[in-house]
Recover the amino acids of this structure.
């Protein structure tokens, strides 16, 4: 079988990194859609009486349905990553999702991002940079 990444070692690494970032972006989008959907469902008490009404609200919520579809796509992309990269390299890269989700939640959901979160994001960026160089 001929690899679709036959342009040298550097090209393979870049292609894997691209797929990792794509999978993380898909996962982040899924999380944001699920959050938007649950915001529309609203707060509910954890009780047996709420199981059917909450399930009904969530099962037919377009944000939740879209989030689940995108989550499945991110899972497929992640399987592609795992078939091509060491998990010790790939999995730490998923921490990019913390960065993407914080930025997107700030702009899309209007969430507050504190100074402590920004410092944490900068530390994550430094860690991802170090891992990407290995």
């Amino acid at each position: 079988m001929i690899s679709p990444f036959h342009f040298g070692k550097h090209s393979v690494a870049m292609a894997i990194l691209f797929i990792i970032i794509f999978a993380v972006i898909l996962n982040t989008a899924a999380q944001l859609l699920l959050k938007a959907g649950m915001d529309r469902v609203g707060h509910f008490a954890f009780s047996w009486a709420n199981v059917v009404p909450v399930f009904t609200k969530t099962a037919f919520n377009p944000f939740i349905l879209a989030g689940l579809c995108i989550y499945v796509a991110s899972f497929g992309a992640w399987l592609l990553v795992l078939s091509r990269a060491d998990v010790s390299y790939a999995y730490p890269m998923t921490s990019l999702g913390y960065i993407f989700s914080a930025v997107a939640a700030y702009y899309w959901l209007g969430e507050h991002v504190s100074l402590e979160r920004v410092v944490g994001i900068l530390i994550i960026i430094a860690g991802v940079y170090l891992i990407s160089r290995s």
